[in-house]
Amino acid sequence: xxxxxxxxxxxxxxxxxxxxxxxxxxxxxxxxxxxxxxxxxxxxxxxxxxxxxxxxxxxxxxxxxxxxxxxxxxxxxxxxxxxxxxxxxxxxxxxxxxxxxxxxxxxxxxxxxxxxxxxxxxxxxxxxxxxxxxxxxxxxxxxxxxxxxxxxxxxxxxxxxxxxxxxxxxxxxxxxxxxxxxxxxxxxxxxxxxxxxxxxxxxxxxxxxxxxxxxxxxxxxxxxxxxxxxxxxxxxxxxxxxxxxxxxxxxxxxxxxxxxxxxxxxxxxxxxxxxxxxxxxxxxxxxxxxxxxxxxxxxxxxxxxxxxxxxxxxxxxxxxxxxxxxxxxxxxxxxxxxxxxxxxxxxxxxxxxxxxxxxxxxxxxxxxxxxxxxxxxxxxxxxxxxxxxxxxxxxxxxxxxxxxxxxxxxxxxxxxxxxxxxxxxxxxxxxxxxxxxxxxxxxxxxxxxxxxxxxxxxxxxxxxxxxxxxxxxxxxxxxxxxxxxxxxxxxxxxx
Length: 495
Hints:
The chain is mainly alpha-helical and 495 residues long. It has helices spanning 3-28, 72-75, 88-121, 133-155, 166-188, 202-207, 214-235, 242-259, 269-289, 301-315, 333-349, 356-386, 396-419, 428-447, 456-464, 486-489, and strands at residues 471-473, 478-480. It has a two-stranded antiparallel ribbon. A hairpin with a 4-residue loop joins strand 1 and strand 2. Helix 1 runs parallel beside helix 4, helix 5 runs antiparallel to helix 7 (214-235) and helix 5 (166-188) packs across helix 12 (356-386). The longest helix is centred in the first third of the chain and has 34 residues, at 88-121.
């Protein structure tokens, strides 16, 4: 059996064991907090704020975020200890684990990318089915820190949610999904597989985005994705709820995907699609779990997440699969049309669901993802034209320090937002997208301090001269694109 497939399968078993341990250990302590608004547990947590944000809050003096007037309910993360049970040691413990996890994962991504040149020098295939030593190390790190987080939850409980705002955790995942759309743009376009690299109609030729800025995403997305999932992973304690379970499975799988760098399974389009659309199930489950009403369908959040990510799946994500390019392109419209008919029919058929949920649910999340993807392209393009080219030749130690500094800014901003939340009283989603753009801009800047992506100059020259995209002229010879590493000239290295 292929070694990469074997490790992938074992990883599914491992996360199943960890999740089983999470539920067993929690149940042994009589933990049960799936519905924090309807069935709060005052012996373990403070209650969630009143949904209207207008009723006097008995905990307001100890937790300033509970005094905000806009979205106080959404901004309060329920699964954290009361302030009088928290110490400097409990906070330091989880932050030390987070930093060690993050830096070790980043270090092996860097080692793997340095090894790529040696692989090519040995005239070996870059993408293998046999794990290299750094793949084993990254797998071990992922396994180890999941076990440590489970133990830490039952020793000190609190994760980093005590110190950083919840919007930053959500924004890190949104940022990752935005960059995935950028990665996949060449192969599947934006809407029902259009405009992809083969689209030749007059409109596609006029509006198709230049792929040049996206080469930086393909080369360096591993650092951003690693931060997104590890930061989110340590934001939450391993509480035994189905919402936490789906979230931890998602972050674990993305870490495994990153650990399988330069492995052929890393390129599998069906596996990548599962990783990308998993947020659909997770987001919907969380919206149901924290619903303010017994009948969750009477609230907008389940429709925003359920319909929103469903629309993104049927209009954008689905069309990266290979079979779509072997059949008539008009067939790509069928899933999108069927999904919209289904979504509208459900709302119309159930009188208790307001009709306004149709537009709100179908449009809000996809519009945000599409707009942020275009903004990411524009930001990368501007930075490509403005950033000094000399930055790419800096000492690797300086490049590493710049990367750590930029990501530290993300965390510091989140900490300040949490600490001074009463002075930054803005709606939840606006705050989330502020962090999304901060993350996109910061990640993009960090990439321009690193060496140019492989064959970037040749690709740039080919695009400027409108040469055929089927070959790229390297310094040695003209090499077919599919023989160069898939990660730098096609969309193959997504996630």
